Amino acid sequence: MIALLLYRTLADHLLPWAMTLASRMLARSLNLPEPLVHSTGDYVVAHVTAFEHSVGRSLCPSRLARLLRAWWRCRH
Known about the structure:
Elements lengths: L1 H29 L3 H21 L6 H15 L1
């Protein structure tokens, strides 16, 4: 019961407060308005997701291992 109470207190009150504080501190350190920091964060997430879907698939470990084995067979 105490663990549930601690979890709910943390999730309901402290976590949103900490996120707001972190975004405000980041905005102040970059000398930008806070809404611009939020929209830039969304933009960066969209670009990272697009990169992972385009280039990340070609860097898949199993695909790289298959290419390495094919290269090794050609050399010998």
